Amino acid sequence: MVTRRSIVKASLALPFASWALAGCDASRRPAVSAWSEGMYLSGNYAPVDIEVTATDLPVTGKIPEELVGRYLRNGPNPLGDVDPASHHWFTGDGMVHGIRLDGGRAEWYRNRWVRNERIVGELGEAVGGRVLGGTPNTNVIGHAGRTWALVESGPAPVEMSYELDTIGVSKGWPGYTAHPKIDPDTGELHAIAYDWANLRDHVKYLVIDRNAQLKKSLDIPLGGMPMIHDMSLTKQYVVIYDLPVTVSLLDVARGLQFPFRWDPDHGARIGLLPRTGTPDDIIWSSLPAQYAYHPMNAYEDDRGNVVIDIVRYDRMFDADRLGPFGDSEPRLARWTVNPSARTVAEDRIDDRPQEFPRCHPALNSKPYQFGYTLGAQDLAYTSIIKHDMKTGASDIFSLGEGHHGGEAYFVPRQGAQSEDDGYLMSIVYIESARRSDLVIFDARDPARDALARVHLPARVPYGFHGNWVPDAA
Ligand SMILES: [Fe+2]
Hints:
Elements: E1 2-3, E2 51-55, E3 59-61, E4 69-76, E5 94-102, E6 105-113, H1 117-122, E7 139-143, E8 146-150, E9 158-160, E10 166-169, E11 181-182, E12 189-194, E13 202-208, E14 214-221, E15 232-233, E16 237-242, E17 245-247, H2 249-253, E18 260-262, E19 269-274, E20 283-286, E21 291-300, E22 306-313, E23 331-338, E24 343-350, E25 354-359, E26 370-377, E27 380-388, E28 394-398, E29 403-404, E30 409-412, E31 422-430, E32 435-442, E33 452-455, E34 466-470
Antiparallel strand pairs: 1-2, 2-6, 3-33, 4-5, 4-34, 5-6, 7-8, 8-9, 9-10, 11-12, 12-13, 13-14, 15-16, 16-19, 17-18, 19-20, 21-22, 22-23, 23-24, 25-26, 26-27, 27-28, 29-31, 30-31, 31-32, 32-33
The structure holds fe (ii) ion.
């Protein structure tokens, strides 16, 4: 069944920040040649304007029967018209896409806007007792048997039902982040989050327990207002990325929708907060000015160094103020932090453009061998790269001509015999058909054709992060 909802023009919501919309400084030209104004609203960046429910999806190949649960992915999907000259990719209304698998069948596909009061109004729905807040657009996770949509700067996360209907803003959670890190040994979520009410001088370190209750909140003083998108966890430390993209108070005063900009004078440093320590215990180490959104993983080596594998950029939000890709290309690097010397050594792992690094979910914060990224070419996502972080070798999962992937999520196989014994899931856009597939690969064998392609009845726009949420969890 396909349901078309009436869409009316709407003023742009502000899920990322509570500043008003205004014009954008276009006085500088972005450096990446494939960039163009409006690119974050064109091609497969363009939003879809319908919500779809489809059941018994057609499949090519064979879905592993052990996969029982949902693959969920969040991304920006502005409802109503927006101005290409000022629209920032990070600010679109959140839309969660979900595919349920069960016993070899693809039972359903759903896509749903994450409701706030404006979206409910535009869609002509009743609030129905829900407590509505933002429309988180960046990540969607399963935790404590529940489903949560997340964004870097939001209020509390928004809880969604199993079928992706919006339940409402989570009670008892503070303002949150898109990228909590799960401790695989305790099931707790660790996060670095803004404190919007007191933004200018600190962030918060938060721990949510396995029952979705706030267990710890610690203020981390900072100089200025850096953009902190993600964090890392190791056995001993919480890793804080204090990098030179900061809130521009001038842009705030101008009413800019997305007031973060490149600020090399801020400096770049990595903080190691002992898990049970205080802010006075943080070990800060400087590194050359650069920016990073996403670590692949971090861990301590046998010499006590903290090894961080991360996708980094030379510059961010300098000339391109509408999205992340115009100023420089994302490349995979290793930062090795020596806590005793307070130094950071950088090694380039792979200079091909790539983003959205992931690893085996049970090895987060621990030594590991394999990581997976989404390879990019001319700002389109053309391959999945499998990295052997021990040997430096890499392999390519080719997606096919005119096929463009999304973040690849690794699901270990039951009874796995090796770290890479499992499945890679990615939502792949098929340019010629203007729709998408959920593609499942054998992670051990990049040369092998996909195990299964679940044919979705709709296009899934390029977005951000996804996760496999097994029913058993
Ligand atoms: Fe992210």
